[in-house]
Amino acid sequence: MICNTWRETVFNFYDVSNTSVNVNFVSSLIINIYSTGMIIFEMGRTSRAIRTIARSRSSGKGLRKVLAIIIESAALQTTMTISNLIAFHYNPALSSALTALQPLVFGISICLIHMRVGLGWTTERN
């Protein structure tokens, strides 16, 4: 009797929270894609302006390398969010594990950005 009541409560929780969780994941994806897209747009526009002013095709290479790092980080975070959304619908236990791992993955992506900048991977070697 107690086990059946607990199961009904758990399944009712997933039914009720399903909409809000979907909204949360989808809004996170939209914000991530929009922000990354705007960063790409602005850096591309700035890189073209630098090439026009400097009249050199090689100008703005540093910005393109930074852009590649930002895209890699955004792809890592987007992949984690999409996998969590899929896991929530098919395996709630896996979704709980991915939710616990998500801050770690976000921290790793930020550390990768700092590491690349700190090691000078974004600057051109002469």
Give the topology:
Layout: H1 2-54, H2 61-90, H3 92-118
Helix pairs in contact: 1-2, 2-3
Overview of the molecule:
The protein is an all-alpha fold and 126 residues long. The chain has one domain. The protein is 87% helix and 0% strand. The chain contains 3 helices and no strands. The chain has helices spanning 2-54, 61-90, 92-118. α2 packs antiparallel against α3. It is elongated, with a radius of gyration of 21 Å. It starts with a helix and ends in an 8-residue tail after the last helix. The mean pLDDT is 75.
Quick structural summary:
The protein is an all-alpha fold.
Whole-number radius of gyration?
21 Å
Count all strands and give the number. Answer: 0
State the end-to-end CA separation: 74 Å
Q: Write the element-wise H/E pattern from the N-terminal end onward.
A: HHH
- Quote the average pLDDT: 75
How many DSSP H or I helices? 3
Helical fraction equals over 70%
- Tell me the overall shape: elongated
What is the SS-derived class? mainly alpha
Number of separate domains = 1
Low-confidence stretches: none
Strand content: under 5%
Sheet with the most strands?
Answer: none
Task: Write out key terms for the chains shown.
about 130 residues; mainly alpha; 3 helices; about 85% helix; elongated
